[in-house]
TrEMBL record:
This is Cell wall assembly regulator SMI1. Residues 167-304 form the Knr4/Smi1-like domain. Transmembrane segments: none annotated. The lineage of its organism: Bacteria, Bacillati, Actinomycetota, Actinomycetes, Micromonosporales. It comes from the Bacteria. Gene3D superfamilies: Ribonuclease Inhibitor, SMI1/KNR4-like. Pfam families: SMI1_KNR4 (PF09346).
């Protein structure tokens, strides 16, 4: 347990508050109880977490109505107030144990919150996120616009049947373009000169220029995200291939309409190699990991020639079974994301998947076929030999499942772009290898793994760290203290008390 100097001072408010909490549990102990535990997350107006648990000598749980979640609401609010008095902290995690003989041990940590995904805890050292892709800047093969201004105006007039607002003046359009940093395609420019928004385009609500500028803040930047949610994110390629940049947002994406549900119809002024400036695409909440191609221009959309935007089943695939036959994958050359939940798997067929970006396999497998594939994320059995991954040019994140054989991470030393690792479920032969990974900025380990690694690791190189593997509150508090910059930070954020009531 980590304790600050203040915690050991007689009469310290934090220690006294924790002692009183232990006394509360002891005073309400049921007949035959042996141990009691309080494990909670406290804020000024309430609490969460497991709450209070009583157990007998043989480990049997005992329910005590007077100490259920609702009944302890008032004492928990009081406990938070006493612990946080004189600080600016708004949340504290508490873990306390007391036995029937009156021996108690308590620790509290300010600012420690569990993740909303599973029983895990994440600390963010730097908010910088890795780039969504490492794709080079594309050279567009056809940089000309496909739209036709005159035809776009004629189509808009025909579809609106006179129900259009006045057009935007030239100086208004120019001012909007100055804010965007891009000149609008000729057909879109002509449409705004005719009518500044109003009506629909392909069933989507069309923006006036003022709303376009406002929504541009959303489409011009990567989708809002944070650690740990992005460590293994992969943006898939569009269909047709290489027409749209692999991104969730870009300054060259100009929104012109939306579906009122977080999705946008966008004019793309920064296409990929086989795209054209002015093409229309779908982006937003339903397209955050794969933007969708709609048509070559706004004119084409108005003409009713958009490409059907559907979720292609042959881009993502999941299979379950004892022994999965991968030969049918020969019919899916465009597959980009594959998940295989099986006991055995023959990976030879994977070599044909030249667009595969993300792969998860629960069975021990030969990873050699992955050498020449553009895989960016892998989740594999730790009994798989990682040697074929040495020097892999595109691999960026790796997770290991549970296994009975310690995994040798040595081949990862030469994976230059590997920025994220999740190892909490695996047995790792030598954690010291992690200190040699040049691009590692995110690490997810179990409590025991973090304790082994901490003396070897300088956490200042990490952007975020996660404690996983079903840790207890006490383990989470100790883990967070392990990552503190110095003892002063630990003393500032931690309160503890132990002894006999």
């Amino acid at each position: 347990m980590i304790a600050s100097a203040d915690d050991t001072t007689p009469g310290d408010a934090g220690s006294d508050a924790l002692r009183d909490a232990a006394r509360l549990l002891s005073d309400h102990g049921p007949a035959g109880w042996r141990t009691a535990t309080l494990s909670v997350d406290l804020v000024a107006r309430g609490h969460g977490g497991e709450g209070v648990r009583y157990r007998t000598t043989d480990g049997t749980g005992v329910y005590v109505p007077e100490m259920d979640h609702g009944a302890i609401a008032s004492p928990m609010i009081e406990l938070f107030g006493r612990l946080a008095e004189g600080t600016t902290f708004r949340q504290v995690a508490v873990h306390l144990t007391v036995d029937a003989d009156g021996e108690f041990d308590a620790v509290a940590r300010f600012g420690l919150r569990g993740s909303s995904v599973g029983n895990s805890y994440t600390v963010v050292f730097r908010k910088d996120l890795p780039p969504e892709t490492l794709d080079p800047e594309p050279v567009v093969l056809d940089p000309t616009y496909a739209g036709d201004p005159d035809r776009a105006i004629a189509l808009l007039l025909d579809q609106a049947r006179g129900d259009l607002p006045p057009g935007a003046a030239e100086d208004q359009i120019a001012a909007a373009e100055a804010k965007l940093g891009y000149r609008l395609p000729p057909d879109l420019r002509a449409m705004y000169a005719l009518a500044d928004g109003g009506g629909t385009i392909d069933g989507w609500n069309r923006y006036p220029l003022t709303e376009l500028i406002g929504m541009y803040e959303i489409t011009s930047a990567p989708a809002e995200s944070s650690w740990p949610g992005v460590w293994n994110r992969v943006i898939l390629d569009a269909d047709p291939a290489d027409t749209i940049r692999r991104a969730s947002g870009h300054p060259g994406w100009i929104p012109i309409a939306d579906d009122s549900g977080g999705n946008f119809l966008v004019v793309d002024l920064a296409p990929a190699r086989h795209g054209r400036p002015g093409q229309v695409i779908n982006v937003g909440v339903d397209w955050s990991t794969r933007p969708g191609y709609v048509a070559e221009s706004v004119t084409a959309v108005l003409a009713g020639r958009p490409r059907p935007v559907v979720s292609r089943s042959d881009l993502r695939l999941e299979r379950r079974g004892g022994d999965i036959d991968l030969e049918p994958l020969r019919q899916l050359p465009d597959l980009q994301e594959l998940r295989l939940y099986s006991d055995t798997v023959n990976t030879a067929e994977l070599a044909r998947l030249r667009r595969l970006r993300s792969l998860s396999m629960t069975a021990k497998a030969d990873l050699a076929p992955l050498r020449e594939l553009p895989v960016e994320h892998l989740h594999v059995n730790p009994e798989s030999d990682l040697t074929p991954l040495a020097g892999h040019p595109t691999l960026r994140s790796l997770g290991l499942t549970q296994g009975t054989t310690p995994s040798d991470l040595t081949p990862l030393r030469t994976v230059a772009n590997l920025h994220g690792l999740s190892l909490a479920d695996a047995d790792v032969a030598d954690l010291a290898v992690l200190t040699d990974l040049p691009s590692l900025v995110y690490l997810e380990l179990s409590f025991d793994q973090w304790r082994q690694l901490r003396p070897l690791l300088d956490p200042t190189g990490l952007h975020a760290a996660t404690l996983s593997g079903n840790p207890t509150h006490r383990q989470a508090i100790e883990w967070r203290s392990l990552l503190d910059a110095d003892p002063t930070e630990t003393a500032h954020r931690t309160r503890s008390a132990r002894g006999r009531l």
